[in-house]
Amino acid sequence: RRDRELDEAGLLVDTNEPSYRQHYGIGGEYTLTENIQFSLGYYFDRNDYDDPGNYDTKYHGVDFGLYHFLSTQTIGRLILGFVTYDLSNSVDALLPGILPGPEGPIPGFAAGVVRDESTIDNYSFTLGASHAITELFTILVDVGTRYTTSDRDQSFLVPPPIISLTPDIETDDDGWGTVGQVRIDYRDERNSASLTAYRDISAASGS
To answer: Of 105, 206, 122, 123, nearest to 164 (Cα)?
Structure first.
């Protein structure tokens, strides 16, 4: 079937090849005192594409939350998070190289592979609170900062004894940014709904 996927980042993946997704998570909460509670969670996500033009991704995430019950309506929040993304793809390409010839090496082109691999690490810290406005509505606000590093390696591979003329490319970057969210929750005896606006960084799988 035709695979069409709208990722969280808003990218539309359009390919004739199937994709395979795995998602796992585990977490728990522990009450330290009558007013203080903490949580710990781990998440894993993987996307693999048969289409070599799309990027396969792996995601590992850990978050720690500390909650202070200020009143029956208000809860203070501190959230620490770490996420690492691995993105990779390999594409067949015609690459320049030094080829063996009858009278010695000669320049030319050979069938090879362009391998692109990236790692993105993201650390985040937020402070916030949730407040029950009424029995049905609760508002939650988190504001904080993040620090992100990225490393990218591009390799241009040709089979021996051919010598590639394209050097490998390595790039890295880092930076600070802001993160946050505003969420309104509705819950009654039979129904629940949420409306969220947030700012964060994420890696999207696909092209």
So the answer is: 105
| pTM for this model (two decimals) | 0.79
Q: What is the DSSP letter of 205?
A: P
Question: H/E element holding 165?
Answer: none
**Ramachandran sector of residue 142 (left: φ over 0; alpha: ψ -120 to 50; beta: rest):** beta
Alpha-carbon distance of 168 to 121, in angstroms, equals: 22
Task: Give per-residue pLDDT as tens, 58-101.
Answer: 999 999 999 999 999 999 999 999 999 999 988 899 999 998 88
Read off the pLDDT of residues 28-60 as tens digits, 9 standing for 90 and up. 999 999 999 999 999 999 998 887 778 889 999
User: In whole angstroms, what is the distance from residue 199 CA to residue 168 CA?
Assistant: 34
Helix and strand counts by DSSP (H, E) for the chain? 0, 11
* Residue 64 · residue 42 · CB < 8 Å: no
Cβ(145)–Cβ(178) below 8 Å: yes
Greatest CA separation for the chain: 86
